[in-house]
Design a protein that fits this description.
flavoprotein, 30 strands, FAD/NAD(P)-binding domain, 6-stranded mixed beta sheet, FAD, single chain, FAD/NAD-bd_sf, about 475 residues
Length: about 475
């Protein structure tokens, strides 16, 4: 038998044998399951999810659903193919026993696996005071149930909506309120909207855009307390500047928490920023040693990126979940020579206040920004971010057709400032400080985060060679 034939037989055996378990039945989990079947895996497949719903699309929740264009329960993700899987929905994973290769469930069951994919994603950061969070009219938006409840509250015509936090989701919700004709106040303890992901220069533009649309934007202000009435409904918000707002709907848009608690004691590189993995989506253990049968994909994954000094990068982006799931699936059922890397170039989009915002790269890695095209005054422009003389990110307002142009330059580490485009040049092409906030200052976390080089805290014992006495 030839070497090639032997390798082919090994691959067929690898794909046919063993049980694969996917923890996380959302976008990454579903697309990974489909990719596994597409690539020939024919063994037992189990998907575990803590929500009772089948996988659904989350981006419409803060846009079309809140506007009333689409019902929250009509956002189910399309199925690309039949996956012939056992679904365990409405039950949370509570632990991972790597020694016996079992996922432990809240029901007390243990699900055995031969290969495991962790795709548990993130959840919304709750309001900091549990008693206030329990008031009627206080919302977070992450699940379709969250969106359905908030949409009903907005449809009832509140006198004033308070949005706490002005990242992408918070800004989108403020935009929805404006479109629905609802008075809305945005409280942002940072310097302005979108400052975390895009910096202060763009934050100034986003602030002007919100105020032009009628938003009562309060920057450098936090919400210290929420007061309810005798019936348990929120009625007032006390702000750090000493003012009090009469509100009857409060939306907390405070960022997200990665769902890693169930991995406590499993010996994986899991922590605040997610689960560390290599470029092939294989999870690291707490000592930085790559595992053979545990993989990670989606919002909960963090992996080193060649374009950003090999720092670990965490991404809460739709395309990262899809592409990462496909790479993880491929590598779970292929031998070493057929495995491939997940090297995402982050990209994002947001629709707010009539403006289509699109970006590519890790803008927050840059320390300078330059407007390259269009007019910031008209909310129609392209801008590039630079770090140590090379372009690392770009953002466009109503100018998205140029994004591939900037993406290509980021991929090849082109010089910064980038060469001027052929036409529609900006009137002031001089670079300036991008004004990203100090990461130690509390504000909403950006959707893409560079988290340094260590997978997690070390648990190893170190030894060194010493000359004999």
């Amino acid at each position: 038998m030839s070497t090639a034939s032997l390798a082919a037989d090994l691959v067929r055996m690898f794909r046919a044998e063993g049980r694969i378990v996917i923890v996380g039945a959302s976008l990454a989990g579903l697309r990974a399951a489909e990719a596994l079947r597409d690539k020939g895996f024919c063994g037992p497949l189990t998907l575990i999810g803590d929500e009772t719903h089948e996988p659904y699309d989350r981006p419409p929740l803060s846009k079309q659903v809140l506007k009333g264009w689409v019902r929250a329960d009509h956002t189910k993700l399309p199925r690309m193919r039949d996956i012939d899987a056992q679904w365990r929905l409405g039950v949370a994973a509570t632990g991972l026993d790597r020694v016996n290769k079992q996922v432990l469930l809240a029901t007390g069951d243990a699900v055995p696996y031969d290969r495991l994919l962790i795709a548990t994603g993130v959840r919304a950061r709750p309001w900091f005071n549990p008693a206030e969070a329990a008031l009627q009219g206080v919302f977070t938006v992450r699940t379709c149930d969250d969106a359905a409840r908030l949409q009903a509250a907005l449809r009832a015509g509140p006198k004033r909506v308070l949005v706490v936090g002005s990242g992408f989701v918070g800004s989108e919700m403020a935009s929805v309120c404006c479109e629905l004709g609802l008075p809305v106040t945005v409280a942002e303890r940072g310097g302005g909207p979108l400052v975390g992901p895009l910096g202060g220069v763009i934050g100034d533009i986003a602030a002007r855009m919100q105020r032009d649309a009628g938003v009562d934007l309060r920057t450098g202000v936090s919400v210290e307390a929420l007061d309810g009435d005798a019936g348990g409904h929120v009625r007032r918000a006390r702000l750090s500047d000493g003012t009090t707002l009469d509100v009857d709907v409060v939306v907390a848009s405070l960022g997200s928490i990665r769902n890693v608690e169930w991995l406590a004691g499993a010996g994986l590189a899991a922590g605040f920023w997610g689960v560390g993995c290599d470029a092939g989506c294989r999870a690291f253990d707490i000592n930085g040693v790559v595992t053979d049968n545990v993989f990670v994909a989606g919002d909960v994954a963090r992996q080193p990126h060649v374009l950003y000094e090999y720092q670990f990068i965490s991404m809460e982006h739709w395309d990262n979940a899809v592409c990462g799931a496909q790479v993880a699936a491929n590598n779970m059922i292929n031998l070493e020579t057929e495995r491939r890397p997940h090297l995402p170039l982050p990209s994002f989009w947001s629709g707010q206040f009539g403006v289509n915002i699109k970006g590519v790269g890790v803008c927050s890695f840059g320390d300078e920004i330059v407007f390259t095209q269009g007019s910031p005054e008209d909310y129609r422009f392209a801008a590039a971010y630079g770090h140590r003389g090379r372009i690392v990110g770009a953002v466009t307002f109503n100018h998205g057709k140029w994004l591939p142009y900037y993406a290509a330059m980021i991929e090849r580490s082109a010089p910064f400032p980038p060469p001027p485009p052929g036409y529609d040049r900006a009137s002031d092409p001089a670079p300036m400080p991008a004004r990203f906030p100090d990461p130690r200052v509390p504000t909403e976390m950006p959707d893409v985060v560079l988290t340094g080089h260590d997978p997690t805290s070390r648990g190893a014992e170190f030894h060194w060679a010493r000359e004999p006495a």
